[in-house]
Design brief:
The protein is mainly beta. It has four helices and 18 strands.
């Protein structure tokens, strides 16, 4: 009887009519091919930005989620054969300068006026990517998993520009298709835009999100509808070589010289949107991006973010194995929104 029950459940869940529907399916932004070449300068002087559809009328998320946002925001998107583009106009009618705490990449979300985009290119409401900047132009990017969590250790190649005006600030960016993974042939992605205006003490989103959920929640994303399916990015190959050399001369024992060298290479080949081939020749896992320089004056050990490329993708699997207290592969740094709406980056030790 138990086997029959579970078999019936699998059949029912697989029926299209019984699958979960997208909560904010009525919020649709169309993205079309750019009418002219776009220069990332924060000026929006191209004809593309005057003719494209605009995502506006943001909803307030905090402090209340029952009205439209008082801080007006408008977003436009376009694409060409190599990349897609986003322009966000963040209007500001209050006196005083913008609030910016840091120019560091992946800044603290809650301490900066900023604009972020959350993209679900698999349309599974679970995995995605996020990009954005604060009002001074510092970039933010990360890989999303678990429906709303963001791994900020993921950094990739994309370009952006923020320009300040008396009554607004404009964020313009170019994101190459090779920077992201996405399903080939689908014409709808999940997407949402988030803005934090600290002068108004207001957080808002294009697609409405209840205040108890983060604006990064992909379950509440709207729809980005392409006029044509995004182009196939082709084979995505990353080569990461390393080399080391040392030379010593022992004058005390007769000018004994010794030269050592070491070299190797790692390769990552994207076979499909969800399958990687990782190759290595003479690997040395210590040869990764340099750790941050931190002076430790406490009696506790320091734990630095994971930088190895192999463990950054699908980091939710390597970091937790489904349980918050288990870290079998070192640890990770994740961005989350806490229930009291304090945004922070957690650095957790492996168990």
């Amino acid at each position: 009887m138990v086997r029959v029950f579970w078999l019936a459940m699998f059949v029912l869940l697989g029926m299209p009519g019984l699958q979960a529907q997208k909560i904010n399916a009525d919020y649709v932004l169309h993205i079309r091919s750019a009418a002219d070449p776009i220069v990332i300068d924060g000026e929006l002087s191209e004809a593309t930005w005057t003719s494209d559809e605009v995502a506006g009328d943001f909803f307030m998320v905090l402090p209340m989620d029952t009205s439209r946002s008082k801080a007006r925001t408008e977003v436009m998107m376009a694409y060409d054969k190599d990349a897609f583009y986003l322009a966000a106009i963040c209007y500001d009618d209050l006196p005083g300068g913008y609030i910016v705490e840091s120019l560091r990449r992946d800044f603290s979300f809650g301490n900066n006026d900023n604009f972020l985009v959350f993209i679900d290119p698999f349309d599974d409401q679970t995995n995605g990517f996020t990009f954005g900047a604060n009002a001074a132009g510092a970039q933010w990017d990360g890989m999303m998993f678990g429906g709303s969590a963001v791994n900020l250790n993921w950094d990739n190649k994309w370009s952006s520009k923020v320009r300040n005006y008396p009554d607004k600030w404009i964020f313009e960016c170019r994101i190459p298709f090779k920077t992201m993974r996405y399903k080939k042939g689908i014409k709808e992605w999940g997407i949402n835009f988030s803005r934090l205006d600290l002068k108004r003490n207001e957080k808002s989103a294009w697609s409405p999100v209840p205040r108890q959920f983060p604006t990064a929640s992909l379950a509440y994303s709207g729809i980005l509808r392409w006029d044509n399916a995004p182009p196939d990015p082709g084979t995505n190959i990353s080569l990461i070589p390393y080399g080391m050399a040392s030379h010593t001369n022992d004058h005390e024992h007769g000018d004994i010289e010794r030269t050592d060298w070491d070299a190797g290479i790692d390769a990552k080949v994207a076979l499909t949107s969800s399958l990687n081939l990782d190759l290595t020749i003479h690997p040395d896992f210590s040869q990764v991006e340099v750790d941050r320089q931190v002076t430790n004056l406490s009696r506790f050990e320091l734990f630095f973010p994971e930088r190895r490329q192999f463990f950054l993708e699908n980091s939710d699997l390597f970091a937790s194995f489904g349980m918050d207290g288990i870290r079998p592969f070192f640890f990770q740094e994740n961005w989350t929104e806490q229930p009291d709406h304090v945004w922070c980056a957690h650095e957790r030790q492996s168990e």
